[in-house]
Design goal:
2 copies of one chain form a homodimer. The first copy, chain A, has about 350 residues and is of the alpha/beta class. Chain A folds into 2 domains: about 160 residues, 3-Layer(aba) Sandwich (Rossmann fold); about 130 residues, Hypothetical Protein Tm841, Chain: A,domain 3. Chain A contains 9 helices and 14 strands. Chain A has a 6-stranded mixed beta sheet with strand order 1-2-4-3-5-6, sandwiched between helices. The first copy, chain A, has a 6-stranded mixed beta sheet with strand order 9-8-7-12-10-11. Chain A has a two-stranded antiparallel sheet with strand order 13-14. In chain A, α3 packs across α4 and α7 packs across α8. The longest helix of chain A has 17 residues. Chains A and B meet through α1, α2, α7, α8 and β11 of A and α1, α2, α7, α8 and β11 of B.
């Protein structure tokens, strides 16, 4: 198929084996005020980590979802990120090194997306770190309502809510929360958040050089995962209003918020969808929520948890309360999310 | 060609004629704390515009380059943006309405990218606004060293430096600079900035539904413009290190900075290139600069002036000095660029 050939080599890379390391070096060079890179252990670290007396936050997962997780390292969010190879779990050694590097003496929270490899490796890393005297709590994100179980997951996949967990738990840690308190608010965000994604095209990993999955010229994958895992069904493309209506129904139906609950609406691009379309999707989402007597009091629109160059969009809704709103609004200084003093 | 069919319809849109208006509505809904939308005049306005006693900044141009310009409206940057239809100049009426809406009594600066339609319409708008008693200065950006004259331009095209002009002139206005001072620093940024872009794929406008230009599976357009205008030549794809070396040579050779000049390095995605590749490009750029005894003391990496979903990257270098560095670092609160108090 010529469509396959067309996209296969269209990347700014050198040796595909070096993509992650070279990109990490670029991240470090671009943001020396925020992060430092430990290339030997393959880590992105908050520049001033460990922060004494502050709970450390560690996340990680396969690369290819940038800016997740490395772009969220910095004051008010993560203390360290462990990037694996593209779409491949990081290894326990990385996670242990990260955990020790960010331990400020009051424990470390692991934020883990629900994929089998990530869960297994973070569990082992937590045990190893605890053997070395670091107190560790783990929080699992599993917000994707599209499917139960999937290619790499038992139970629901962890997707967009992970960004919100990292921001809000990061703010709680920055404000002096204990490990138990930071873990509790992280779990609260996961419990009150739901997501759903749609892909219009596949992505291409540098190592494979060909699309991860085949999709027809007039098709979309409804309920796609962030590695191109199958969703609920393959169907014909429709106008944005209809697609967003069905996505909203899936998310709101599962979340089932009380009337009047303020929402954080997170419209996330999967990488290849232009921003003009993401805002158009946000406009449709706003209308869909209004039809249900719901309102987004906070919004986030952009490419924050991606699948390389996949064209697609996910919607995440988080049921806010005063605590979560205040923690969301708190200052954050990372390469990809930055506001406040 | 099946590659053409594959991408043609892969968009989250309703009626293509409504894309710009619906996306603007989404921008307004997502960022009510920063901007407001005037749909009748097709404007993005700083929420509290006009700011009395502050020089107003207006820019605009065809849509499809998001977040440029609407995403840069807010405190410390633009007071208004006039979006045209996709890749189509806004009209003078829009520009006049924007100019009047942001006039705080001390004049308005028009920031105009060097494209024939934009230049003509902004010139007419400036005359009309002055007839109505608003003092207007105009600054042209023309930083693209790839080609002299082009499909829509006499002289060099205005590209990446436009983002830097909007940020730095915006900071100057926020700090109380006069119209003459704000215009002078805007011209200084344009004079000290140079850009060069490379495309790996075409974009697809919603109205056309087919790629703007044809490009082979192993080809790149070296020196591309932000509407897909031809560059210096079509050539075979090469490793990122070689591409960036040649891009750097084109930019540094033309800018010719004195040794030791601090640089702002702006690695910009054209829309469809994953962030992991943009940081890899930044890593190569850092090495290329070091080879020449140059250093980027400030960096910006991401999708800031795009061509819809085009896969590609541009590099902009700005020769900094103390004034420009301080204005770059000053707080900014816009949907797409945000830092500081």
């Amino acid at each position: 198929m010529s469509a396959v050939v067309t996209t296969a080599l269209k990347k700014f890379v050198n040796d595909p084996a070096d993509v992650v390391a070279e990109s990490l070096s670029g991240l470090g060079a671009a943001h020396p005020d925020l992060v430092r890179i430990d290339l030997a252990n393959r880590l992105v670290l908050r520049k001033d980590a460990p922060v004494a007396g502050k709970v450390g936050l560690v996340s990680g997962g396969g690369s290819g979802h940038e800016p997740l997780h490395g772009g969220f390292v910095g004051a008010g969010m993560l203390d360290a990120a462990c990037p694996g190879e593209i779409f491949t779990s990081p290894v326990p050694d990385q996670m242990v090194a990260a955990t020790k590097a960010v331990d400020g003496g009051v424990g470390v929270l692991h934020i883990v997306k629900n994929y089998t490899g990530d869960v297994m490796n973070f569990r082992l890393a937590a045990e190893l770190a605890e053997d070395e005297g670091v107190q560790v709590e783990s929080v699992l994100t599993n917000d994707d309502v599209a499917v139960e179980d999937s290619l790499y997951t038992a139970g629901r996949r962890g997707v967009g809510v992970t960004v919100l967990v990292e921001k809000i738990a990061g703010a709680k840690a920055e404000a002096g929360g204990s490990l138990a308190e930071v873990a509790a608010v992280a779990r609260k965000v996961n419990e009150r958040g739901r997501s759903f994604g749609v892909a219009l095209t596949s992505c291409v990993t540098p190592a494979a050089g060909t699309p991860t999955f085949e999709i027809g010229p007039d098709e979309m994958e409804f309920g796609v995962g962030i590695h191109g895992e199958p969703g609920r069904r393959r169907e014909k493309l429709r106008p944005a209003a209809e697609i967003v209506a069905e996505m909203t129904e899936a998310v709101v139906g599962d979340l089932d918020p009380d009337p009047g609950t303020p929402l954080l609406a997170f419209v996330n691009g999967l990488g290849g969808t232009p921003l003009i379309e993401l805002y158009l999707v946000h406009n449709e989402l706003t209308r869909q929520l209004a039809d249900r007597g719901l309102e987004a009091t906070r919004s986030l629109v952009g490419n924050y948890i991606t699948s390389l160059e996949m064209a697609g969009v996910s919607i995440t809704l988080l049921a806010l309360d005063d605590e979560l709103t205040a923690l969301w609004d708190a200052p954050v200084h990372t390469p990809a999310l930055r506001w406040g003093v």
